[in-house]
Amino acid sequence: MSVPSDRDLIQRARRGDTEAFGELVTRYQTSVFNVCYRILYERAEAEDMAQESFIRAHERLPTFDDQYPFGPWIRRVAANVCLNHLASRKTTAEFDEERDADASPMPETVQETRERSQQVRNALASLPAHYRIVIELRHYQEMSYDEIAAELNIPLSDVKSHLFRARKLLAEKLHAPD
Amino acid sequence: MHLTDEQLNEYLDHEINHPAQLEIHLASCADCAARLAARQALFDEIESLPEITLSHNLAAPVTRRLSGRASLPRSLRLVVILQFTAAIVVLVFSAPFVVQFLSSSVASLQAPSLASVLLQVQAQWTAWLDMLSQLRLPNIPEIPVFELSSLFLMLAVIGASVLWLIGNGLLLRDQIK
Question: Do the interacting molecules here have an ipTM over 0.85?
């Protein structure tokens, strides 16, 4: 039996087939979770928000145009959910140190790559939430300045300045001597 | 003159309308080219961050939550039944009087003043309550005939309305959240 396409699953989910929607969750849960994690930097909270994103997406499924790919849309829904969550929380999350912990021995190059990824994550996690969001929308969701301004309901000049400052802070943190 | 950091950012973000001029400068200026390369390296580092794996599959909790929403709990189903019954009772009792009111209103269509409309509504309401209070069910002797006072009827209508509001409030509680 052939694997159903996203479009098939979306149409079945619209008709009330919960299992079809479950299959969509399985396909996109990692990317959705990563969107939430990059914005919130707390594993349990990111998992909760990823779940919430799928529930919200299910509610909005009738408005989704299935001529477009499902992935970018669900990731945008997730960014919105996290944005609203941050607005309600209004506290800076502590960085989740356990996330990539792996004590198993590994080749030196792999170890170095992981350490560098960890440094990048730490630098991103240390940014204020409104800087993290513009980084997420620009670098991971590949939105234009205009789209980000519309999504966040802020002026275009703020998008540019947030991105500029966020990148400046990242560069300083990542290139600072240990 | 060197390019600004903002220009380099916008160039890498594909937000420059006419990049050709900027590219001519980059081709001839080693300093700006180096700054662009450093910036590009930062962008690459951000974008090549490996994805983190989930500790468990989200499909089961999500579908459980969706299924929970689809079927109403027993208490809520009872409210719906009560609501439906109350609506039928109110409809049966009020239908003849609504018809009477409409027929008399249609017969005298001459743009009455607000005061006269209010008086008419009040008179109809009183007449309706009086008629209801005199209502008997002579053909069904097995069922005890109630003495329907205006107060009782008013309470019944208010009760049905409250029940209706509570029922709809419960049904729509997720949307309200």
Answer: no
